[in-house]
Amino acid sequence: MSKNNLLSRLDSEMFEAVWQIGRQADQKNLRAYVVGGVVRDLLLRKQKVFDVDVVIEGDVIDFARELAVFFKAESVLHPEFRTATLFFKDGMTIDLVGARSEKYDRPGALPHVAPGTIGEDLFRRDFTINSVAIQINRAKFGAVVDFFGGTEDLKNKVIRVMHAKSFVDDPTRIIRAIRFEQRFGFSIEEETLKLLKQAVRQDAPSTVSRPRYFSQFQLMLTEANPFNNITRLQEFKAYDFLTRVNLEKVHVLQRHLTADKKLRCTNEQRMMLYLLAMADKVPLSGLSAHLDKFQLTKEERALFNKLDTLDHIEGQLKNSKLPTSHAYSLLKPLEETLIWYLYYRTNKISIRRHIEDHLAETRDIRLLINGDDVKMLGCKAGTKVNTVLQSVLYRKLDGEINGRKQELAFAEEILGGLK
Ligand code: CTP
Question: How many Å apart are CA 123 and CA 330, to the nearest integer?
Answer without folding.
Answer: 56
